[in-house]
Amino acid sequence: MMGKVTLRNLAAHKIRLVLTAVAVILGVAFVSGTLIFTDTMNRQFDDLFDSVGKGVAVDVRAKKVVEDPADTGQSAQPVPASVVETLKKVEGVREPFGNVTGYAAVVGRDGKIVSGQGAPQMGINWNPGGDYAMTSGRAPAGGAELALDARTAEKAGYRVGDTVQVVTQGPPQRARLVGVFDGGDMMGASIAAFDTPTAQRLMLRPGYFTDVQMGSSGPSEDELRAAVAKVLPANMEAITGTQLREDAKSGIAEFMGFFRTFLLVFALISIFVGAFIIFNTFSMLVAQRTRELALLRAIGAARSQVTRAVIGEAVAVGVVGSTLGLAAGAGLAALLQSQVMGEDGGGLVLTANPVIWSYAVGIVVTVVSAYFPARRAAKIPPVAAMRDDVALPQRSMRIRLALGTLLTLIGAGLIGLGLAGDAGNPAIPVGAGAFLVFIGVTLLAPVISVPVIRVLGAPAARLLGAPGRLARQNALRNPRRTAATAAALMIGLALITTVNVLGASMRTSVDAQVDDQFGADYIVMPTGLNGLSTDVVDRVKGVSGVESAAPYYTGNANIKGERAAYVAGDAAALAKGVRMELVSGALPAGRDGMLVDEDTSRAQGWAVGAAVPVQFSDGKTETLKVTGVYAKNDFLGPRMINGEAHRAHAARTAVGAVLIDASAANAATTTALERALSDHPNAEVRDQAGVKKQARQQVDGFVSFLTVLLIMSVIIAAVGVVNTLALSVIERTREIGLLRAIGISRRQLRRMIRLESIVIAVFGAVLGIGIGVAFGAALQRALREEGLSLLSIPAGTLAVYLVIAAVIGVLAALWPAWRAGRMDVLKAISTD
């Protein structure tokens, strides 16, 4: 019997439950879309790396001495060509050959780098019978020839016989295109191939390879690897082809794992917001069906049966919402793939994982959210069926007040503990604390809502007469419902506000750092992570009006067995260019000098004159002497060494930036610098204002990206406002009929509902913005030592968010207000 009751109720409340399902659909779509997208990308990367080096049994490379988190290639040592001859004598080795890989960016006919928006620009040596097959033309021979992968040639508009400009970490190159090859699905990367001597000269050094690979004439990979390892120098290692491919996959897998977790966090936020809507909807449905549920109890239904009936409706909503959410997630994944891969993306990969999680998340969240309203429904006494004014009993606010206050205080304490750095990994206590604060404030929201809504609704009540007063009273009538509706919007806007406060603080802090620490007239910086050619320094020095051009290098070394990042260059020039404040000692006069900042000096116990053994990426160790200590400087970081010492040990010397002093920093000098570097499209000339602008653009891009991800939760919250108002209109059908009967017009009725919606939405926004500002200020304070030195509250942006919240209220009220205005007065009055 109760099954039939559940089905009848679902059929009778289709519109209400569809609105509830929208919250499930949107949240599940975010989860399933993330899982489908990352599964698809992982499969594509697996296919890619399985095809690369397919016939390789063993790979020989230099042992990695120093980790390079940025993977710029400067720490990877080359393999001498003599190793190839040694390997030819090892039994079982078949056709050993050396690979050269490095940075080589193809310049299109428009003067811009092809695939320059984050995709790798690779240069290789052409190995006949290697991973790539020539589709037209022939292999390059000599320094004046090159071959391109088909996609790059097509994007750049080059054909065999054309002259192609290529940017490397040496002087600009122009070579004739003699061949086009199938580069496979390289995820948007461009590939330029040269003959081996040219590739070594341009991207590595003559007589060296990046690695050496070989096939097997019989032994297994492990057996051949062991035989090869016996003949290698101590600084070389041999790995199997399987491990080579797994290593290549692992980096991508790690990134995709982080990316998946990153997106799932925002998906869970959307699900969390949706839970408030589901809870609110079922609470209202139960309240509206009080007499119906009491009649079921009166005719013999047990409490457990009533509970199961309501839970059954929740399961149905969860199943439908999960199914539609899974389909919507596939569409979202396809959109993400098209943005990342463009036309190169293949079909989507649908595994059991997103299907299982979609239904698990959708159904579990719906059922859990509906459980408490279901329990409340089961407690309705059978005698209530005989009363006209029956209502569900409401618990005292005292329990909510006590529990909400306790959770808020505990959450604030955990956040403080995490920000103080006394709890190991700060992410755990801060995340747990933020969650408890949200729950605590949500519990306190009914108490907070009464005075706040009185204030927010006062202008409407004073200026708009009866509709304004009624709207405020309606919002105050059920504080729990109002608070639950507003809480969904509160969470989204709290997180968006936090992000915007941090973004504004980052912009303000960077501007202050540039003003305090940037002393050069200009800086030339690369557009990517591969650095600049030393030719850039020579070009800049030749510009009229340039008084000095100081190259700035970055690198990594091992100090006391741990990775230590450093900058390198001419100490005097860099000190002037970044306004270094020397606290003690003096600038180093020779190659063996090192400067450290105050924090490093204090932490390591290094005073002026201390001798520090430094192991560089080539495995060699030099003892550097601390000649001076400087105040913290964000451009220099913790330590600086001599440029000559860096170049002596780096496998590839790439310039990180060039600091320029000019006799006159004006438009003419800027134009002259840009003209001198026209053959280096990866080099950008910036003055102080340009440095600030670039930093702001990076911060704005990151803030915009996070805001877009959080908008999903705001959309779900808006759906919740629509749902609450629609159910509220149904609940107040008789009341609305009486209002119409005593003379209120349809226009006034619609205005009343719109104003009620606006008040609820603005209340949620005020609460969310207030929490967001507090969270943002706390995080800024905790990150002061990381460069976030100044707090900035983007008042204008927050004011816009308030206006947007009001607009959300207006839009959310359109359908409920229209429905209320169309009610038949007599039928509404006669409604039970």
Describe what you observe in this structure.
This protein has 832 residues and is α+β, with helices and mostly antiparallel strands. It folds into four domains: 1-55 and 241-393, no CATH class; 56-240, no CATH class; 448-518 and 689-832, no CATH class; 522-686, no CATH class. The protein is 57% helix and 16% strand. The longest helix has 48 residues, at 241-288. It starts with a helix and ends with a helix. 44% of the residues are buried.
The fraction of residues assigned to DSSP E strands is: 15-25%
How large is the radius of gyration? 33 Å
**Oligomeric state:** single chain
Query: End-to-end span in angstroms?
Result: 25 Å
Main sheet summary: 10 strands, mixed
What are the low-pLDDT stretches, counting only 5+ consecutive residues below 50? none
What do the pLDDT scores average to?
Answer: 83
Choose one word for the global shape: elongated
Walk me through the topology:
Layout: H1 2-12, H2 14-51, E1 58-62, E2 79-80, H3 82-88, E3 93-99, E4 101-103, E5 105-107, E6 121-125, E7 133-137, E8 145-149, H4 150-156, E9 163-167, E10 173-182, E11 190-194, H5 196-203, E12 208-209, E13 211-216, H6 221-230, E14 236-240, H7 241-288, H8 290-298, H9 303-341, H10 352-378, H11 397-420, H12 427-463, H13 466-477, H14 479-517, E15 522-526, H15 534-541, E16 546-559, E17 562-569, H16 571-577, E18 582-585, E19 593-597, H17 598-604, E20 611-615, E21 621-630, E22 639-642, H18 643-649, E23 657-662, H19 667-676, E24 683-686, H20 688-731, H21 733-741, H22 746-782, H23 795-821, H24 825-829
Parallel strand pairs: 6-11, 8-10, 17-22, 19-21
Antiparallel strand pairs: 1-13, 1-14, 2-12, 3-13, 4-6, 5-9, 7-10, 8-11, 9-10, 15-23, 15-24, 16-17, 16-23, 18-21, 19-22, 20-21
Helix pairs in contact: 1-9, 2-7, 2-9, 2-10, 2-20, 7-10, 7-14, 7-20, 9-10, 11-12, 12-13, 12-14, 12-22, 13-22, 14-20, 14-22, 14-23, 20-22, 20-23, 22-23
